[in-house]
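Slide 14.
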Amino acid sequence: MNLVIIIPSYNSNRSLSELIEIINRDYDRDIIVVDDGSDEVFVCEYSNVNIIRNRENKGKGFSLRRGFEIAKEKGYTHAITLDADLQHNPNEIDKFINIPEDVNFVLGYRERDSSMPIHRKFSNQVTTSIISRFSRETIFDSQCGFRRYNLNLVNSVSYKENGFQFESEVLIKCISQGSSLEQIKIETIYDKNNKSYIRHVSDTLKFIRLILRSLVRK
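Slide 15: predicted structure.
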């Protein structure tokens, strides 16, 4: 398994720098950072870090897809994704590395405990239930971005979502086709002072649009 770590980032330069420090302290892996048009250009001196910058803010899904395509072109077979805001514990990366490489998707899932804001807990429950139905698989946490992807598989499918909904779209389109899946429990981390770029009304409407398109496709 030739594995790379992909980190989409938007205006998270401080936490991103800390995240890369931790990863490079504990792991010997190449990293692709997709800077999604942040206000300040991210600079990193580590030789194992490849920084790709979108000229303007395109969305998390667009950035992940771009990262997947570049990783595939560079010869990597698998990618671990995690967010730049330190709400995924990088010390848990080995959990994803240790899963056999023939598993197409490794999904992290969090407990919906008291640290998770009530509105996030509710939306997580609802969307996870819907995605489970469409993918014909019991998904524990459809909104968690801490994952491992088989790059051949994820790059073989056409997508329409550029925002946060991409991570739901990929489950509907890939897992429903019978690809292998494993889910591993990860730490639940929520920083109340961390700015979220999720737009609740517009992103809910985009999720509904995704579901309606999936219904038509079926």
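Speaker note: The domain at 3-217 is CATH 3.90.550.10 (Spore Coat Polysaccharide Biosynthesis Protein SpsA; Chain A).
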